[in-house]
Design a protein that fits this description.
By secondary structure, this protein is an alpha/beta fold. It has twelve helices and 13 strands. A hairpin with a 2-residue loop joins β12 and β13. The model has no long low-confidence stretch (mean pLDDT 97). Bound molecules: L-homoserine.
């Protein structure tokens, strides 16, 4: 029986992965072993099966006994353990949600509804390392897979609105702490019908600028604000998050001629859904109705939202999409720049399609390949 080891199943992405695997009844047909970096001998997650106590995630001999390792433990763990395992001659499959190995030449970035052909080629040629993509990139490709697969995209500019979860669990808590401070301080004014919006604004601005305002993890107020900066500066003047858009999307697609992707990445006060405003330069003039149909038929999860206010507010917001696998695309229209310029807006759960779901699916694909 195949042996599958899970590392980092307790963190945010790992927990979502466990939830999804339980929901899909994935824990069968192989022997599952759960590893830990801090609680050896402790109890593993509830997966509806008898499972042995937690094993040491740094025990290379035990790790090497696995056919497949699935890790959501993060980049530091991958950086330390992966090379040691490979050096030891381990030939198993390494499935990873961290970015560390994404751009290695012997790794494949997985997003099977979009690049199953690249994955199948990789499996056939003996590739053993499969890594989840950057969340924004994966969600953009899920939204636009129809246009990409028809070869209609000349370039894309994506302006993002990224949720707190992309920065981490502490940041999600901090966003809500910030919101709570603002809500509490504004309460007396909100309860006073004679107060004005400008008075409330002045109070909120004072709160946001107080040194005591909670910002240990973000380093700035996000609630009632935003920051157009995610990750570190690259030589190009892009942030690393912006840089990934082009590099990772082209690697995922296995593009021979790279299709440019660029834009500004912005952190906003959403909890776990990343949104993107898209300018899509098409390489030919295609009627809007056809484009809408092509986008909607891209994969089973993409859903076109009619370009009206009611549908947009109901279906194309983080509040509507959070916790679901649906990837809505709306605001689809030709732009005034010309008939080959298409506007669109998309929103997706960054912990699902942006992180855990491609990993859950590649595990099943690898198991199927090995069976
Ligand atoms: N880097 C992303 C973000 C999340 O900061 O939102 C992970 O892909």
């Amino acid at each position: 029986m195949l042996k599958v080891g899970f590392i980092g199943w307790r963190g945010m992405v790992g927990s979502v992965l466990m939830e999804r695997m339980n929901a899909e009844k994935d824990f069968n047909g192989y022997e599952a072993l759960f590893f830990t970096t801090s609680n050896v001998g402790g109890r593993g997650p509830d997966v509806g099966l008898e499972i042995p106590p937690l094993k040491d995630a740094h025990d290379l001999s035990l790790l090497s006994a696995m056919d497949i390792l699935v890790t959501c433990q993060g980049g530091d763990y991958t950086t330390k353990v992966y090379p040691e395992l490979r050096k030891k001659g381990w030939k198993g499959y390494w499935l990873d949600s961290a970015s560390t190995l994404r751009l290695e030449k012997d790794s494949i970035i997985v997003l099977d509804p979009v690049n199953r052909h690249v994955i199948d080629e990789g499996l056939k040629s003996g590739m053993k390392t499969y890594v989840g993509g950057n969340c924004t990139v994966s969600l953009m490709l899920m939204a636009l897979s129809g246009l990409y697969s028809r070869g209609l995209v000349e370039w894309i500019s994506s302006m993002t609105y990224q949720a707190a979860s992309g920065a981490g669990a502490n940041q999600m808590r901090e966003l809500i702490s910030q919101t709570a401070v603002l809500g509490l301080s504004a309460k007396p004014l909100l309860e006073n019908p004679a107060s004005t919006a400008l008075e409330i604004d002045a109070l909120i601005t004072r709160e946001l600028r107080k040194p005591s305002f909670p910002q240990e993890f973000f380093g700035a107020p996000l609630a009632a604000s935003l920051f157009p900066w995610i990750d570190r500066l690259m030589e190009s003047g892009q942030t690393r998050e912006e840089w990934k858009g082009h590099v990772e999307s082209n690697k995922i697609l296995g593009a021979k001629t790279p299709i440019p992707v660029d834009g500004i990445c912005v952190r906003v006060g959403a909890m776990r859904c990343h949104s993107q405003g898209l300018t899509i330069k098409l390489n030919k003039d295609v009627p809007l109705g056809d484009l809408t149909e092509i986008i909607g038929n891209g994969n089973p999860w993409v859903k076109v939202v009619p370009n009206d206010k009611e549908s947009t507010l109901k279906h194309l917001t983080p509040a509507a999409v959070s916790g679901t696998l649906t990837v809505p695309v709306g605001r689809i229209r030709k732009m005034i720049m010309g008939p080959t310029y298409l506007a669109g807006f998309t929103c997706g759960d960054q912990l699902l399609w942006g992180a855990a779901e491609p990993i859950r699916r590649i595990l099943n694909i690898v198991i199927e390949h090995l069976s």
